[in-house]
Amino acid sequence: MSYLEHFKLKEQPFRLTPDPEFVYWSKQHARAKAYMESTIWLADGFVVITGEIGSGKTTLLQSFLAELDDDIVYAVVSQTQLTATQFLQAILTEFGFKPFNKRKVELLDMLNMYLIEQYTNGKKVVLIIDEAQNLSKKVLEEVRMLSGIETHKEKVLRIILAGQPELKETLDSPSLKQLVQRIRLRFHLGPLDKQELREYVSHRLAVAGNTNPDLFDANCFEVIHKYTGGVPRLVNTLCDTTLLCAFADGKQAVAASDIMTAVQELDWTEHESNTGVFGPARNIAQTPGVDPNVSQIEIRSNGESLAVHSFPVGRVIIGRSPDNEIYIKSKFVSRHHAQLINDEDGCIIEDLNSTNGVFVDEKQVKRYQLQDGDEVSLGVHQLIYTDLRKFNTADELEEVEEDEDEDDEDDERTAARE
Fold it and tell me: Roughly what angle, to the nearest 10 degrees, separates helices 194-207 and 220-228?
């Protein structure tokens, strides 16, 4: 018997994968969605949505996309550790082009012609950039230029930027003043307050088929908020683990003591919003001229490098479900396999009750403090950890982009001579 049968539930109420049926529309989530919808009927719509990791941005975007009419064409770019040319290639790929081995001037021309063509055919085009906090200032300047493409009547590209709170700080930079002037609406998704958290848990249980109004004792919600800070993804993790613990103990309902048992199983402490434990690291990440990213993960398989991701302070979920920050498509990787916790002391990897486990240097671990250069194995994939605190990668990216810009200028001069 599973805990679903035990508690008379039809499906898992607190899974991490975004599902429109389980969406709980708090006042702030409903307002953020309304802002995104405004990009459709405002020709110069340019909206920025920010929120902490796990605040519901991905679910919000999926709900927005699911309700778009047939006259809307959209592209979603979520890999944002890109140079300006790679960024344009990513957009065009989303629109169905094969833009590789093209110069930047050719990419811009392709995109411009595509947008005008869609406008002529009565289509509205929306560009959604997720994880936008990782965009360099040069790419953000490219976004500003794209937002200005227009016909003689109106602009032809609607833009939504979604990202973590660092995006707000980046946009406040004096060098991006022109971009900010183009933004019509900005909204920050905060955590659920205590009343919203109670409604959120009750809503998800009801959608999953629960008919017992006392399945979670009233005293549970204060404890849940204390250890999750009202962040939806953390609420899901804690509540799911709690149901498993209560089921293992043969209980028919959940009490505050079961929440604490789950907290101990997860090895959690009070959420940072209550303790301020991550404050020093956030200050480091905000230092002008210093890359906010503190850890880098390179994904390998069969000796081949597949992808490289960099992350700031906070939690990062790894798994085979596309909603994870690190997405690994493999039958050997669980939907939500493990998490990385970046704080002022370094990076911890934690197994999220995966089927095949987490291994560091061939030794299985439940929770492990990573050291620079450690190799983590998840099935047939390896994750190589690099501590970015030892150097500033922003300088290296800047050099790459400067070289690329010089190549583009050479291309443009050659094209002018021809």
Answer: 110
Query: SS3 for 43?
Result: coil
Backbone phi and psi for residue 378, each to the nearest 5 degrees, phi listed first: -125, 100
CA 330 vs. chain centroid, Å, equals: 20
Lowest mean pLDDT: which of 43-57, 145-159, 185-199, 286-300?
286-300
Q: Side chain identity at 79, as an amino acid letter?
A: Q
Query: pTM for the full model?
Result: 0.62
Beta partners for residue 317, in sequence order: 339
pLDDT of residue 400: 47
Cα angle 388, 389, 390; round to 5 = 90
Provide the sign of the torsion angle of the four alpha carbons 135, 139, 142, 144, taken in this order: positive
* Exposed/middle/buried for residue 375 (C-beta within 10 Å: 0-12, 13-18, 19+): middle
Residue 69 structure tokens: 């009419």
Whether 325 contacts 317, CB under 8 Å: yes
Cross-strand bridge partners of residue 384 = 298, 375
Q: What is the pLDDT of residue 9?
A: 95
Three-state secondary-structure class, residue 185: strand
Nearest to 105 by CA among 121, 135, 84, 126: 84
Tell me the two tokens of residue 3.
């805990």
- Amino acid residing at 180: V
Q: What is the Cα Rg of the chain in Å?
A: 23
- pLDDT attached to residue 407: 54
